[in-house]
Amino acid sequence: MEPLILLENLTKNYDGKVLALDRVSLQIYPGEWVAVMGASGSGKSTLLNMIAALDRPTSGSVRVNGEDVLSLSEEQRARFRREKVGLIFQQFYLIPYLTALENVMLAQYFHSMADREEAAQALHEVGLGERISHYPSELSGGEQQRVCIARALINQPKILLADEPTGNLDAENEEIVMAIFRRFHRSGLTLLFVTHDAQIGTQADRIIDLEHGRVLPTFPAMALRSI
Amino acid sequence: MTRRILLGSLRRRKGQVAVAICAVALGASLVVAALNLRYGIEGRLAQELRSYGANLVLVPRAEPFLKERDLVILEDKRLKDRIIGYAPFIHRVAKVEGKDVVLVGTRFSQIRKTNPWWQVEGRWPEKEDEALIGSNAASKLGLRLNDRFSVVHKTSQLSFSLAGILRTGGAEEHQAFVPMETLQRLTHLHGFLTSVLVSSRAGKDLDETVAILQKAWPQAETRTLLQVARAEEALLARLEIFLTLVSLLILIAAGLSVYATMSTAALERRVEMALMRALGGEERRVAWIFAAEALGIGLIGGILGCAIGLLLSEIIGLSVFGSFIFPSLLSLPIGLALGVGISLFCSLWVMRRILALQPAVVLRGE
Fold first, then answer.
1. Which domain holds residue B130?
2. CB contact under 8 A, A54 and B285
3. ipTM score here?
């Protein structure tokens, strides 16, 4: 089977001083749930940003769904982001003056056309059917993150990329959000998580451990769960 | 959706939007006021300068006299707006109390407009047998206020009452002034004039007025009272430079103020821009959303600024000159263009810099 994400010798050097990624190579296959783990500053978020075409590496290659991401122009990178990936951030990044519904519709707007019914259905699927008219400031952290999930998935992306998606949530909301991720994973979605939380990491199929920008030997999450 | 984003932003960010509109309005109002004053003051000042006396004199070109009936030329619509006032004269030498004195016939109501600095002890003549005598002449003739004196010209003789003694600091202090019609009767020069003093607007207008006068009244030679005219021109030219520089400084200051506010507003929203790009928004599309908002702020601020600027200039005009300043039509499009242009330029300038960054860099908070 062809890997959905293929990284080869990916290196990111900030101003020639900080080596965030050091010749990282890995493959992620369709339907896989991969957790990228490591200490702060190990290069987890940088790796995710490279795959999402949110940043450019110093060297190496990134192929997603057979597409060479580095060769894309800025316009093509925007198209890539709206069609291929769904993004979830630790800080949520919701537009404060748009309602939950409008925040979801924003992703549709950049993709093709905003569809109110479809956006409302997406919010309903993450348990926010009654909160669609609320502004982010009127929602709890868990609810805001669920809006972000709905926004990330509204355009049916091939991969969901999440950077510490439960980092700002309490245990109860963490479980709600993880349950949603499990549900979408079961339906065939490829998930790539960045987390420093071993509890979250163990829910993945596979864990990629980063240390000082380098990939440590990969092992299945099952092994970590058994420790 | 663009409308939703714009309305949502304007509704939920009322405070920030109001600050931005105020900055644009303030900038535009200062420029509109400065431009209005620049043009308005010049016109008003030119008018004020006319209180220092006439700057043109009309004398006969070939004939010994000008015809009084030709004075209607000065009332012609082409000249009416250019001429602030005029006073006709007829000069003759006559015997006053047995001594030769230059006798000047004029219309006192008109000379009071063209030569407002003339000081009269007593009062201005009102009747046809009343006269005004220069202080030097009165002293030589031994005349006092309300004295009666006789004037002889050739075989004619008339008697006058001394209504006022004139002080001008000039040659007029050696002359005697009587109503024009009375002198024409005395000298049998009915309907004739020897000169007309004209008080015209200064600056560039003056040359045009001279040209129009020469064409309209070919029998009269139009002479510029050079000292007065040149002094006025020099003053107005300096004033023009001064006001232009002040307007320019205000334009720069207002521009910088609007730039600072709009740039800060755009910078505050860099995360929104980065997020929109992360969601797949193309640079142009994201830029359009924020540019449309800046355009709206610029338009509202520009219109408000024009209104405030007009009001401001009228208040200044009223307090300095005691009358309204005619607003410069140029100031409104310039004020509006400044509001829209600068707010759009500042937003696009900052946006360009933000959009040049990779979204991850902005979202990381760098």
1. 55-224
2. no
3. 0.88
